[in-house]
User: Fold this.
Amino acid sequence: MKRLTKILNLLLISLAVSSCGSTIPDYPNISPYSDYEVIYDDNSSTKFTDTQEKTLFSVLDSLEYQKEKIECETYSLDHLGELMFVAKRNLKDSDENEAVYVRYNINLYNGLILKSNPFISSLTSDEYALLNENDLNIIKTSLDLNKSYNVKIIDGKDNLITSIKSKYRFGEAVDIKLYPTYDAENYVYINDKYKVNNYHSDSNYWGYRFYMPAQDITIRINTDPFYIDRTYLFNEVFTWAKGLKATEVIKVGMLKGYNSINPDLSEENIVYSTSNEDIKEIFNLTRKYLIKKDDLIPPGGWFIRYYLFTENYEYSFKISNDYLYLTTFSNYYTFMFQDETLELPNIKYPL
Assistant:
């Protein structure tokens, strides 16, 4: 079991298939590759066995792939069930034994395979195939995945409505139902690294679900939405920005002031602009990475509040002494832009 866990930990990547969206045109594509050579990192202490490699490629090369263009989110639990590796492949019809490098990503939960096509310029996967149940089981058996792993709850057990088993098979759905609370939200974390998605929030229960990875796990339940210490996209913190598009913003605004003065300044002090350049610069802040801070915002100093207006809505966020903060009904959280060299934009073309 330790050997398999090392293989998966070394070769898994943070690519969330279930959260990806794309348009998939159908077209047959027979593999043009012949032999294979899996490329391992120089620091890798564990490799596939020859038998495992042979099994993998006998399945992979028997499939017909479809064109695919995928955009993916990171920091998803799905990647714990994905296997990623790169192989050097020779071309079947090349007299010069021309070789290319092909990246494979296999979702061992649902059988979806994403494969890079070296003849298509892309930063994401170019082709896909879906394993049938038999082929998926062949691969899982080869990797010794048809077994159970341990689950331990280390915090928040009293919030559970239904009990959690101590063992789950790889790929088995783990459902967590919590008593609803009204003064704070609960969040479920796996191994203190991954947040589990919520699929049900109602007066009867709050539901969370994930699929068991090929490793023992711990579950922690708490009220901190940013418990994991990592970088966050702006729109993960300020969720109103997640669906906002630059083309929807028709006007921006900026309010500058000092924290020692009444922050409830009148609207006459806001500087507005409909310039495309000003809109772009302020909108681009909503696509930056943030670092979570556990600091109290220092008193005094300065602040800037930016406004973005669409046809029907108004959005705003405040930066105070380089800190951004999010206020909820039970707490507030502080962040800073990851890019320390970032210069906050001014409105260049005011109305």
